[in-house]
Amino acid sequence: MTQHRMTSQKQNGRPVDEAAKRQPFSIRNIVKTLGPGLITGAADDDPSGIGTYSQAGAQLGYGIGWTMLLTFPLMTAIQEISARVGRVSGHGIAGNVCRHYPGWLLVIVVALLFIANTVNIAADLSAMADAARLLIGGPAILYVVLFGVTSVAAQIFMNYRRYVAVLKWLTLSLFAYVAALAFAKVSWTEALAGALLPRINWSADYFTTIVAILGTTISPYLFFWQASQEAEEQRIDPDKHPLIKRHYGVRREFWRIRADTITGMAFSNVIALSIIITAAATLHAAGKTDIQTSAQAAEALRPIAGPFAEVIFALGIVGTGLLAIPVLAGATAYAVSEGRRWPVGLTRKPREAIAFYSVLALSGGIGVVLNFTPIDPISALYWSAVVNGVLAVPVMVLLMFMARHKEVMGRFVIGGWLYWLGWLSTAAMALSVIAMGIGLLI
């Protein structure tokens, strides 16, 4: 009876918020509200990111853990701003750039994003293949093809809602790194001190690691993905429209976005901190500081923390790779297609968005092919990080101007503490890129 009355109210034009308010509190309802932010945060801990956090913990020990508390508010702010732009305007970042900014700016941003994301896909596939080889043996290149084809095919042929549900389930794979802590003899006093009390080591290696962490956690493809996913949700939900066109439900939507984003970014940082602590308690404590990749970290854990730690770590690499590659390829496809005003969206059938899915397949396909060339994907990842770092700054500046652009945001221009925290995040990223540039020149 109650459900019928709620439905009737909605059909008679009553605001959706009334029905929403009457839904009983439950964990299931909370989980249903999580989506783009949760997936974005989990995808941030991709295999290349796992390699960066492992390297940081192995080289610098517990003392680098404080960076996770630093990056949390910064990445949360910029991701929430990205999500709001998508939800309010009904377009992703590239879609808004092509409508309100010069064409040359769009070309540069999208070209750099395509290059960085494709190289990142190649590096992630390489790491996943090495992890699979550790687990079950066999040729790594076979796993590269298998993972690459599976990730792309799932995006193209799976039903959108089912596919998003799969991505949400894949976020659970990251708990492998929380489980890995059980096999590490952690000095929790030192770990807590490292997380809460910054200890600066005035050396080139130390600041290079901080730059790498910032570049790994605040990445342009995450901005594009979350904004586009907020716009995507409006194509499949008849009750959702761009807020600039239909204003009711604004407060509820902004609270949903904030809860989703904070949850996703907190999850991302807890996992990253778990990886740092595991590496510090095992690899750094044993004097193994020359870790370069996530697969090397998994392999190095075996003689120190036992075979189960190695298996858990390796499984996490595969699971998070299966989550991150679709986000990387999807963000590329959204950026290119929105910029060209082609039909976009994972909700569309392949024949309805041929160009969109072609870009997605091309990005994933090149990522696979790069593993067959003399180019070392891990070395290429270094330059991908450079491109990502350089690209992040102008994209973040552009995003901050977009957040105040009345033609984009209407009456919902972003201000207050969120706006200034977004600029602080942008400034921190700019300083990290300057530091990285100085490091390359020295």
Automatic annotation (TrEMBL):
Residues 1-20 are annotated as: Disordered. It holds the Pfam family Nramp. GO terms for cellular component: plasma membrane. The chain crosses the membrane at residues 103-123, 135-157, 169-186, 206-225, 261-283, 311-334, 354-375, 381-402, 414-441. It is found in: Membrane. GO terms for molecular function: cadmium ion transmembrane transporter activity; manganese ion transmembrane transporter activity; symporter activity. InterPro entries: NRAMP_fam. This is Divalent metal cation transporter. It comes from Bradyrhizobium uaiense.
